[in-house]
Amino acid sequence: MQSLEEFYRSKFNQIPENIRNGVGHFNVFTIDEYIGKSTKPVVYSRKDYFKITLIIGKNRIHYADKVIDIQKHALFFTNPQIPYKFEWIDDHKSGFFCVFTPAFFHHFGNLNDYEVFKPNAVPVFELTDEQLNDVTQIFRKMQAEIGSDYVHKYDLLRNLVFDLLHYTLKMKPASKAEKQQANASQRITHLFLELLERQFPIEDVRQRIHFRSPSEFAGQLSVHVNHLNRAVKEITEKTTSEIITERLLQEAKILLKHTEWNVSEIAYSLGFKEATHFNNFFKKNMQITPIRFREMV
User: Fold this and answer.
1) Neighbour-count burial for 119-132, b at 16+ CB within 10 Å, e otherwise
2) Do 211 and 242 sit in the same domain of this protein?
3) Transmembrane residues, as ranges (predicted)?
4) Same domain for 105 and 198
């Protein structure tokens, strides 16, 4: 995982003072300043900070187990749980990006509640020319504020990040879950998803997830497993088992692609008692073995 300090050291050879202060950290940059023949490629890795990037120009993004091609311009949202890297396709490349820590929004909501930062979401949103102009204006306002001496500038910068989030979310029609009023099913589903995500990312071979079945999650949430299953199905239109399987597969593919751990170590970290159980699970859902998947990527 690349830390915020390592990001600044690689870009500027120095680290800002008070980078980990109590109010969190925020900064905004123009991509044009960090591209060229001498530019170091972004290494495929997790970061310990959030990042929103406006990409102008053809780009290929390697995100978790996916490869996403951008033909013109797009917004890209990344969180500390999922690794990624950029691969510029042509010489025309420009844009902006901002970085911030979870602490920057500590008293202003949970960023992981926003769909664009959820691990199973598609984090790339292609923009029309008109949308590109709107988003560019938001980033330029960020640049103007970050350089000002206004005492409340970080409040304004938070608002501008929220402007980006809501501008992007409004591009998509509201899902069934978003349209429903808050109820018990939403609350229990939210708690289930939060408990599931707390187990990730896996960053050490000694780390191991503890909850893999609907009944284990139901026990932790002190509800009957049937109640949990009904609530999750109502809100997400997926079964509890499907969501758990999707998340385990995503992390398995990340570990196979991103680490040199052997299959037994990955199986252990994902809560499987035997490597053969993990092999069977992976092959059943992916139609290939973990070793073959690693060879392919």
Assistant:
1) beeebbbbbeeebb
2) yes
3) none
4) no
- Cα–Cα distance between 47 and 167 in angstroms, integer? 24
CA-CA distance, 101 to 5, in Å (whole number)? Answer: 12
Q: What angle do CA 239, 66, 75 make, to 5 degrees?
A: 100
Higher pLDDT, 4 or 137: 137
Q: Tell me the residue range of the domain where 241 lies.
A: 180-296
Top pLDDT among 179 and 20 is at 20
Claim: this prediction has a pTM higher than 0.70: no
What is the helix (H) or strand (E) element at residue 287, kind and residue range?
Answer: none
Instruction: Report pLDDT for 177.
Output: 36
**Is 174 within the bounds of a domain?**
no
User: What's the pLDDT band for 35 if we cut at 50, 70, 90?
Assistant: low
Q: Are residues 149 and 186 in the same domain?
A: no
Task: Please tell me the total count of domains within the chain.
Answer: 2
CA dist., res. 50 & res. 101, Å (int): 6
